[in-house]
Amino acid sequence: MNINISAVSGRREARIPFSFKEEMAANCPDGAVFAAPVSLEGEVIKDGDIYYVDGAGSVDMDVPCDRCLTPVRISVDFKLNEKFSSNASYDEEIETFSGDSIDLTSTVAKNILAAMPMKVVCSDDCKGLCPVCGQNLNVKDCGCDTTYIDPRFESLRSLLKFDEEV
Question: What is the DSSP string of the chain?
Answer without folding.
Answer: -EEE-TTTTTSSEEEEEEEEEE------GGG-EE-SPEEEEEEEEEETTEEEEEEEEEEEEEEE-TTT--EEEEEEEEEEEEEEES----SS--EE--SSEEE-HHHHHHHHHHHS-S---S-TT---B-TTT--BTTT-----------GGGHHHHTT--SSS--
